[in-house]
Amino acid sequence: MDTALTAEQHEIRRTLRDLLARHSGPEAIPAALGTAEGYDPALWRRLAGDLGLPGLALAEEYGGAGCTVTELALACEETGRALLPSPLLATAALAAPLIAALGTPDQRAALLPRIADGTLTAALALPGGSLATALGLTGDNLDGIWAGGGRAGGIQAHGEAGGRRLYGEADRVLDGHSAGLLLVAAHAGGYPRSRTQLFLVPGDAPGLVRTRLTALDETRPLARVELRDTPAEPLGADDTADAAAALADAGRTAAAILAAEAVGTAANALERTVEYVKTREQFGRAVGSFQAVKHRLADLYVRVEAARSAAYHAARDPEAGPLALAQALEAARITTGEAVQLHGGIGFTWEHDAHRYLKRAAGDELLFGPVHRLRDHAAHRAGLFGPATAASGVLHGAGVR
User: What is the pTM assigned to this prediction?
Assistant: First the structure.
């Protein structure tokens, strides 16, 4: 497999890195987090309007760039390096693919151009509090129990087509407090026609209550979404369509993008640590000159580069997405933990960015992992412990450890 990047892909990376470098600084992240949106709206308009990030992987007919998942993954690798608070992941990696896959022609025409130009942000509201479960990353999501299977629990949809109303709540909704559009997974059909279905809910819909939550990683704003007899429009023309399979497909692609973002986080944490140990002196010499420190940094470099290779492969073959995500999350957790240790006492202080990188790594594993369950489910899908539950190609290009 040729993993070399094209000239256009290199240009996307360079342009985005330069722009984010100009908007970084000690106060940039706290200032962005202090806004009502949880990110810098002016910077988001530049990222969307000038660079077209939310539309990278959308078709040109909807105002997108017509690129592939690889370009979006490269962009997210750069935002991961900068720990950029933005609605890019929730909008472009989670919500937009589902609208493109399931939406009616009218829904796609109305929503995707606004997503592509950044004027509409979106969030995926899934009951049960586990994105990894609902997206089919750590277990089978086809039974719909996570969405409130049966007569109660989760989020319930009532009424007939064209007059649906939702009741229930979803916790830990990524960017759910500020998104202009919510894609809500709800249980429909009652007991006899039980199914999981996706619904479109505008951010200003009556009966919608959104509360921003305190999160381990402040750069990933989370919200509780409560729906109290809230009007909603089914996503797609077929009112009986089951959304679980579409969520699983979107989950594998999102896993590849998340893996690239986690690689960016780990890589920048490592680069910052290398620069620090070059200048920090102990016993009259630079800390980085000690052989034990060199060995630790070398091990981290190998781990990060291996995770990058897996992430790039998964961007081209999303079937490998969950395994690549497992490798990238593990690399980010270990690398950022070592970064704090090698920075010494200053790495534990609020004034230093090392703790932010560690919290990003830990928070992502809580949201999309844990690592051992990602690997376990991928192994079961590939048939390592019995009959395969999906195409065995999931392991191609990535290993189970």
Answer: 0.91
